[in-house]
Amino acid sequence: ELKVEQNPLFLSMQEGKNYTIYCNYSTTSDRLYWYRQDPGKSLESLFVLLSNGAVKQEGRLMASLDTKARLSTLHITAAVHDLSATYFCAVDKGGSEKLVFGKGTKLTVNP
Amino acid sequence: DAGVIQSPRHEVTEMGQEVTLRCKPISGHDYLFWYRQTMMRGLELLIYFNNNVPIDDSGMPEDRFSAKMPNASFSTLKIQPSEPRDSAVYFCASSSGVGHAITYNEQFFGPGTRLTVL
Question: CA of B32 to nearest chain A CA: how many angstroms apart?
Answer without folding.
Answer: 10
